[in-house]
Amino acid sequence: MLASRTDPTDLTARTRPFGAVLAMAVAVMQSTARNPLADPGLLGVNAGAAAAVVSAISFLGIDQPAGYLWFALLGAAVASVVVYLLGTTGRSSATPVRMALAGTAIGAALSAYVTGVILIDPSAYYHFRYWNIGALTGRTLTDVGPLGWFLLAGLIAGAALARPLNALALGDDLGKALGAHVGRTRLLSVLAVTLLCGTATAAVGPIGFVGLAVPHVARMLVGVDQRRLLPMSALLGACMLLGADVIGRLIAWPQEIGAGLVTAVVGAPVLVWLVRRRKVGRL
Questions:
Q1: Which of 209, 110, 212, 229 is nearest to 163 (CA)?
Q2: Does domain 2-276 have CATH number 1.20.1630.10?
Q3: Model-level pTM?
């Protein structure tokens, strides 16, 4: 997907936060779910945001990023809450398996809804596709600045989870024995992931493979201690998205390719290489 070239002076401003928060959020998600392949789709974040965006475009006539990013954030939050509630049974807290199953079901249902809307209203697809490929074009701090408080809250929540997540990595029972509150930790993890992934996805669309691949690279560099893993994931995520944006701007001159497409092309081989080295399963 090619887009018109934007002012090169906005490069770092429009890319710096999003890769960092996506990678940090997925590192939290993978640790919480104890699933090395967890990504924003696991909690229905992408599907919820997409459903809200396509609804805003089709039914409300909103076709500017500054207008529908709030709908995307709301959709991501609602989907995450529903997944968490479905993953909770009676008095027991949500478990990784139940949350994964609930997220898959909600994601499939919302994806079908999105497909149905854009088939009925082709004009909605014209605007939706630019958001859906994960393009940074036209996203400036002026547009996404109001979301900064959500990013800050998510970063604080994610950083506060480092020690409890280290305890839960040993298993729920041993984590409890070490003083971690399992239910509260998982609830705060869902909140942090929703704030971080939801805000980033709302602002620039679903960016593939940044969150999925980067935490594994970070584990190879600093190990599995969340106190080092989370900041390293944020740093590498920012570098990866910035690099993808630069590549997309250079290879399609005088236009540019969406960063989401570049991260998929670059991230997929990296993830395959990690799987071949059998590093992915080590959380």
A1: 229
A2: no
A3: 0.81
